Amino acid sequence: MPPKTQLDRLAITLMVLFCTLWGVQQAAIKIAAAGISPLWQAGLRSVGALVLVYAWTLVRRVPLFRADGTLVPGLLAGLLFSIEFALIFAGLAYTSASRGVIFLYTAPFFVALGAVWLLPQERMRRAQWIGMGLAFLGVLALFGENLVGSPGEAWKGDLLIFLAAMFWAASTLTIKATTLVRASAEKTLLYQLAVSAVALPPLAVAFGEPGVFAPSAAVWASLAFQIVVVASASYVGWFWLVRHYPATRLASFSFLTPVMGVLAGALLLSEPLTPAVFAALGLVGLGIWVANRPTAD
């Protein structure tokens, strides 16, 4: 399939599906955190997904071990992926799933900034910059609510997940700007899962985490959802999209995920929907529309 310059119906349909799953993922992480400590949960997630995706490549006979120049960028992408999810899981120990998903999806803003230097063929239109800016203002409004109106340590979680967004953007740009762009989606994902599966459990031990301390049906179901649906199926689909469609257009469309994440937090975790959350969602939604509407420039 040759690279596309626009998002077609297939890409839009997949992005809506994936954004819904990724929004629910934040709530699933919070539910599983009731019985598994953060870095252990992230590590178990990568180990389980690594097994499933590798089995998938065997069934489909996807070549993985050819000398194609992807080893170094693959290991780099894996390292960035590991840091990203270590920060996400640690951050959600402090902040809510609703807030966390909004901060995480500042990543498209950083993808757009990096693309100026690394992906000159994916020129950003003026409308895309305006849309990104509107969405980013929404995130800033949400962060300000914690700094001035909410006591406690929620701002720490917000900051950790904001940093995770930067590493997610760096991972996306690494894939688009290196030989990984020619690799299969499965191979790209396996680099990330393999590095994180090796790195995260020892990191959890180093930080003295208790591991699985209160297993329950809800905890295991949430972890299984993350492994099978999110980290395996949806991530293979995401890397396929990154390979074939413009990263900046995919990234701006993925701002839909915060909407799904806030709804999942309210429905599954009874998290409060404050005025700042609604304001952030409004600005994010407006940013999506502005960035993706047909325009002459």
Automatic annotation (TrEMBL):
Q: Which UniProt keywords apply?
A: Membrane, Transmembrane, Transmembrane helix
Q: Transmembrane helix as a keyword? A: yes
What topology does the record note for this protein and the membrane?
Multi-pass membrane protein
Subcellular locations according to the entry = Membrane
Ranges for domain EamA come to 10-142, 156-292
- What's the chief localization of this chain? membrane
Specify the signal sequence span.
none
Family recorded in the similarity comment:
Belongs to the EamA transporter family.
Task: Please identify the protein, giving its name as recorded.
Answer: DMT family transporter
Organism, per UniProt?
Pseudothauera nasutitermitis
